[in-house]
């Protein structure tokens, strides 16, 4: 019975995190629409935190998630992604993550 309760709680937390991501995305978009820097930063921070926690709840280690983002940035940079060519965003994210 404890296992059933734990599984139900685990599923409920994952569903809650999914709705939290949608809610925070709405918060971010509203902040962008309003030009409110505080809401933008808060929404982005909440999205990043929710993604880390959701990954952890799904069995993805925080380190492996960071490594996957680094790998993705490296791939985009090597493929000449427009954000890299125009603004250097990809290498900026890659450098930020490597300095942590």
Key traits:
5 helices, mainly alpha, 88% helix, 100 residues, flat
In short:
The protein is mainly α.
Structure description:
With 100 residues, this protein is mainly alpha-helical. It is 88% helix and 0% strand. The protein is built from five helices and no strands. Helix 1 (2-34) packs antiparallel against helix 2 (37-57) and helix 3 packs antiparallel against helix 5 (89-99). The radius of gyration is 17 Å and the shape is flat. The mean pLDDT is 94. This is MazG-like family protein. It holds the Pfam family MazG-like. It comes from Paenibacillus allorhizosphaerae.
Strand content: under 5%
Q: Please describe the biggest sheet, giving its number of strands, its sense, and whether it closes into a barrel.
A: none
Calculate the mean pLDDT score and round it. 94
Number of helices: 5
> What pattern of helices and strands is seen along the backbone?
HHHHH
Draw up the topology in text.
Blueprint: H1 2-34, H2 37-57, H3 62-78, H4 82-87, H5 89-99
Helix pairs in contact: 1-2, 3-5
